[in-house]
Amino acid sequence: MLKSNSFFRLFSRVAVVSAMAAAFIFPSALSSQNTASNANKRKITVEKPDLEKIRKETLDPHSQMYFPKLMAKYNRNDTTMTSEEYRNFYLGYMFQEDYDPYRTSPYSGVTDNLREKATHSKEEIDTIRKYAELALRDNPFDLRQMSFLVHVLKERRKDMSAKIWEYRLEHLLGAIKSTGTGEDVDNAWYVVYPMHEYDMVQLLGYEATDANFIDPGVDYLTVSPDPESGRKIPPKDVKQGFYFNVMVPQAQYELKHPDDYAAEEAIGESTSTDYAPAAEDDMPAEE
Fold this sequence. Notes:
Blueprint: H1 2-21, H2 25-40, H3 51-59, H4 67-75, H5 83-92, H6 122-138, H7 143-155, H8 159-177, E1 189-190, H9 195-203, E2 206-214, E3 218-225, E4 241-245, H10 247-256, H11 258-270
Parallel strand pairs: 1-4
Antiparallel strand pairs: 2-3, 3-4
Helix pairs in contact: 1-11, 2-7, 3-5, 5-8, 6-7, 7-8
């Protein structure tokens, strides 16, 4: 249990704060996402991913799903890129040499002070766009930066650029949704970054209120409907929480950050609140 706890604890310190700070971003992007979904009629097929198959295919230069091929297709805004290709692109990133679930771009926090503003000046928008695009070159799966970029591009009336990034965001989130239902451990959603857990619940109109750690490699976010999301969830459809599979990110974190992981394990052991019965010699004497 400590492995799951220490892994998620490390990320949740940043994730909870960041999710709250960026809460206003997703509604603007998602309002037209539903329209785009209806327009292209691409139905998301939900199926538990075969990670070993995805690993082999995204590392095989002769495969249609070879990761560099998918990356090239993605970067040139190829609209023929299928849902299955997006799924392999997203999940296959976990098996690439430069993948690191704890990696953050040095550009990602530069414009944090501008996130809470409802409107921005032309100069602010240009600054946000510059650093968001730099962050996304460094990490193409930073959904938070992508959503913020869509928001300011629409504000600046750069509609074509906004649609390109919105299309990418929609299909990457669709890749996550294709991995399960999020309703139980067996159908947990697979994410390449724990931060994407918060992005997903926000996408669905919720806000995360608590996080639980389920062994092995499964996280559970307790949620409540977010009235500021702009999405009305019928009372009969309201969920109490969602499950996320982070087994591969957890394993990669332990592999690539052994010192940090060891430190987290030590913290987990030193702060454990597990009950241990007192020895007989320590028991108070009966009166």
